[in-house]
């Protein structure tokens, strides 16, 4: 009894969840319907119409319920079909939650509120006949298709793919005639076509030609086994064409994921390219500066609860500042004493990275923190049935390009960039021309670290934010810098994106781990061949 | 590092013994081995001076780390190559030993399969992978302990040194090497026990690994291996070959122009070092009773470098001091306050590189020189050590 109740409750909740989700969009769309009082009296009227003697009138009442935009309509019809829509002696409509035993638990039809148990003798069932039963069955399948709300019709039509049976086809054909929305009509046609193709009808096979939906392929491969050779051949030909299309789309998807991974690598490596490439400083704590950026995002979201989007935007300057300040502290505190000793710098900054990691573990938590993805970044851009591009990755990709462009501008067009390049090429000469080399060092390191912070902010949208966040990226980032050619920002961009794509291309047939190993071995071998990377520095800077 | 003193003997292997530092080091090491043995065997348990089996085991572990540190010091101190991947050679040597120990289990495993180790039975493999063959024979396995890391170092070093990959680049690709190996060994398909590695060992060449006597024996064997490894390294660095290495470290281009095939010297020293690291790994595994892919982790490799830096680079004995000091500190810290260990380790990295670039050994020598300068106003410092950084 109890188990059944909880089961029923669960079903109810599940249904309720989808319905309330739709209801929310409804209220957003037609602002008039939030008046629940008026709504309830209208609903009551609809229900009253059901309690009549004539089955024809009942049928009309069912249609009326279908055409109303009430989100509870599906429940009512389902209950009516199951014989659970009943009336109490004082004329109230109730849903019987469980009709076994003598006393039945019931709930109010309009509010869904549980009314306790009632004796079965006090309840009167609203009867239906077989005709009505059939009407109800197909109606429930398509109940949302009658809704005036476009979104709801779209989801409902999508749900119908592969679920159509013969009885439904005439109804759907009618609906297709009446439908105004392009997308809904497309889906409905597809749903009918799937039914027809599976039934071995030529029309269905023809209609499915070029459709990329997995369900269409199932239908076509069934049709390809049909007894009619003409239909089978047509289906097989369609399938081959679709496979071709799918291959293309899969290629595009791999490319997208590769570029996305590459953009993350570029973000992680580009700060390193500045400190390592331009200053010759090996900063093993670079990953931990990224971690600081990611934690800044988390902290910002804690400060601004309920506004993840705003917090994320504010995190961009904040993450930059936090990481840049930490970078300046590292430069002043440690690196300046190790000038000209890159291997020692590597060891010291590795020590710093250990301290920073442990600091986060002790102060915040060794566990991962959740960073919320704002609404405008979640979801995906659906290109077709086989290809959808997740929005957060797209934003990060764009962000990486913007950061890259900004850095290029700074290095090429500003006084700071000029001074940095001068100091890189010939420190003594630059100093004698009046450039304050120490200040340039600090600024460069702050810039490189700040970019690491930006990378952290972006990463917080893609991966877990935890103390190990930086560690996971440090080796990859070094690989990107070395692969691209030290001291060359373009090289970093090309290397990062291409390594990302290579990794994703290898993944399907080698597996994630093996793909990574292959890429590492590839870089190790590549460095043997071209020790200075893809784009080696030329001229005097190369001799350093 | 008395490169300036031409030694009296001519035979390269006896030359190290004429050096003061070698004599002191070997003396201290042998005394320590004897003392621990004595305190373990002769002093009854319960006496505060008694050294328990656990402690003997721990010391044995430290000694194998010390051998590893000596191997790293050979390439970093005398060749100027900062290898961030020596943990890989250590782990490969360890895996070679582990495979031998696995085969020694025979049919006493949980599944009782006569040939296949437990994890292969668990993975439903029906036959031994080809590279597991031969490891049931001790001589073969012990040869592989040296040959497998040596071969990897040979191939890797040949490629790297031939194309003159040096400095930071070399460090980064050695790190990538060990990282790639770690990922590879984590895979079950590799046939090395995946995540869990190799464990559950029972006996080594017929001795029960759980008995105290075997533990003492392993401790002593590690001590002897350390002594021999030390002598070998000292012999190398005091030979002409060693001097060319140091010249390469300090001015690679100049050495090359003097007519030396720099890459050959680099390759030789690198391979020797890798084999020593493999030996250290092989001695480590039976004492800790497990080998798993975490030994490949880049952090471990970089930690080894810290031992050497802390002890004092390019001294060999400094590496031993550093390895024992840091690992002793690790044992204490992780026991008393585990959270603080990473802080301490990180701080050590920073403080040693900034304030103690020549390590503890450098501190000794500095104090000694000051003392001598106080006694005699001899202006001639015989050590104009030019430990120029790479």
From TrEMBL, chain A:
This protein's name: Urea ABC transporter permease subunit UrtB
Keyword set includes Protease: no
Signal peptide range: 1-23
CDD domains associated with the record: TM_PBP1_LivH_like
GO CC term (a single one): plasma membrane
Pfam families from the UniProt entry: BPD_transp_2
Keywords: Amino-acid transport, Cell membrane, Membrane, Signal, Transmembrane, Transmembrane helix, Transport
Transmembrane segments: 255-282, 310-330, 391-411, 478-502, 508-527
Annotated InterPro entries: ABC_transp_permease, ABC_UrtB_bac, ARM-type_fold, BCAA_transport_permease, SAM
Stated family: Belongs to the binding-protein-dependent transport system permease family. LivHM subfamily.
Domain of life: Bacteria
Gene from which this protein is expressed: urtB
Molecular-function annotations in GO: transmembrane transporter activity
Residue ranges constituting the SAM domain according to the UniProt record: 68-130
Organism classification: Bacteria, Pseudomonadati, Pseudomonadota, Gammaproteobacteria, Oceanospirillales
Subcellular location: Cell inner membrane
Species this chain originates from: Vreelandella maris
UniProt topology in membrane: Multi-pass membrane protein
Biological process according to GO: amino acid transport
Subcellular location, principal: membrane
PANTHER family named in the record: ABC TRANSPORTER PERMEASE PROTEIN (PTHR11795:SF447), BRANCHED-CHAIN AMINO ACID TRANSPORT SYSTEM PERMEASE PROTEIN LIVH (PTHR11795)
From TrEMBL, chain B:
Single Gene Ontology MF annotation: branched-chain amino acid transmembrane transporter activity
GO cellular component: plasma membrane
Coarse class of the protein's main subcellular location: membrane
Pfam families attached to this UniProt entry: BPD_transp_2 (PF02653)
Transmembrane region(s): 24-42, 62-95, 138-161, 168-186, 216-237, 265-284, 304-328, 340-364
Entry keyword set: Cell membrane, Membrane, Transmembrane, Transmembrane helix
UniProt-annotated location(s): Cell inner membrane
Membrane topology: Multi-pass membrane protein
NCBIfam families xrefs: urea_trans_UrtC
Protein name, UniProt field: Urea ABC transporter permease subunit UrtC
Gene: urtC
